[in-house]
Amino acid sequence: AIKDIKARMVLDSRGNPTIQVKTVTEGLGLGIANAPSGASTGAHEAVEIRDGGKEFKGKGVSRAVENVNKVIAPALIGLDSRRQQLIDRKMIEIDGTPNKSRLGGNAIVATSLSVAKAAASTMGLPFYAYLGGYVADTLPVPMLNIINGGVHAGNKLDFQEFMIVPAGFSSFKEAIKAAVEVYADLKKILKEKYGPQAINVGDEGGYAPPIEKVRDALDILIQAIKAAGYDPWNQVVIALDAASTQFYREDKGVYVLEGTEYTREQLIDFYEKLVSEYPIVSIEDPLQEEDFEGFAEITRRLGSKVLIVGDDLFTTNPARLKKGIDLKAGNAILVKVNQVGTLSETLEVLKMAFTNGYRAVISHRSGETEDTSIADISVGVGAGLIKTGAPARGERTAKYNRLLEIEEELDNPRYPGFSALLRKP
Ligand code: PGA
Ligand code: ZN
């Protein structure tokens, strides 16, 4: 049973306050989890509670901390820590709002994860095994964001993330080695071409060079992959997060990309050309967050070989995923526990995705901490895919390092490689 739940403030990777929750059980289990925080947040996410006012520039979390310590903890202490659904339901009930705005999505998500980790610890199991049992043997293929744009960087790139996907390898360790080598060659190439300022990094550890055009970023990725000695069609391929809500002009109903206005149809044509020219295996949020119809159209056109991933579109929300499934909008979902707010709702979304033939990418946020829960979740649910930034900056490498550890711990680890994707080498 849960003996104690305690919240406190810690800092995230952008230097903003966030909430850490520590759960202790009677069986001497201990679970610690931190809430991450997005920058390009979807309109339908669970909302964070922040203090406002002067301190921490309005970003303090003392109200969220108090909600855990004074409201949530008394309601959960004494319950069996393994009863995750009951625990999450209790928090949802006490909150009583559709977007967790009373207790705070940040307070709820950190509590939900810390209780689950305490239960795992009580049972003497690593978190991934608690979630997935001994069938949890599959490492995820990582999508590593090595060129940052959009709201994550101070450059003029409209697309938010240019990722490399080391799929053509037979272990996670080899995949990470390839990614690290490409990242190093990219640094060298960027420095030679654009000068030393080009190797400053953005929020997720990728470089933020003064590149303005999508194609120029893609060309330089290909160059780096080749320079590192890898094949860009068969070993290290490419994924994009356009995060297009950020360059959509709602008033005019158009996208403004590289200074030019695009209709939805023109933008889909643009993606189609990119997919025919580059080894792109995945495009996240190609269209703005309310455009289910547009997602259905691009899925019809590209969905047989490219993952069309809904992040802001679905916000890890069962009702929104259901709508997507009905309309055949997208063929994959980005899964962020803090978008929906609890572990059980996240597992519900994952189950819905898998039973309906959708792929799932377990994801970090741009504002992260040293918390590694998502690494364990990706293995525990057998997602096959994870995106957690560049192979640099502690809050990103913590997840990769945890996955390296898990791979060594497993008796028969599997690395799905291209089978996690639709486009084959
Ligand atoms: P965010 O970005 O964490 O800033 O929302 C990540 C993403 O869009 O995938
Ligand atoms: Zn995204």
UniProtKB/TrEMBL annotation:
**Catalysed reaction(s)?**
(2R)-2-phosphoglycerate = phosphoenolpyruvate + H2O
Q: So where's the catalytic machinery, residue-wise?
A: E204 (proton donor), K336 (proton acceptor)
Q: Select a single GO molecular function from the record's annotations and give it.
A: phosphopyruvate hydratase activity
> Where do the Enolase N-terminal domain residues begin and end?
2-131
Spell out the SMART domains in the cross-references.
Enolase_C, Enolase_N
| The EC number(s) this enzyme carries | 4.2.1.11
Q: Which domain of life is it from?
A: Archaea
Please state the pathway this protein functions in, per its UniProt record.
Carbohydrate degradation; glycolysis; pyruvate from D-glyceraldehyde 3-phosphate: step 4/5
Cell location: Cytoplasm; Secreted; Cell surface
For this protein, the record's HAMAP family field holds: Enolase (MF_00318)
- Could you tell me which PANTHER family the record lists for this protein? ENOLASE
Membership in a protein family: Belongs to the enolase family.
Protein's recorded name: Enolase
Q: Which organism is it from?
A: Thermosphaera aggregans (strain DSM 11486 / M11TL)
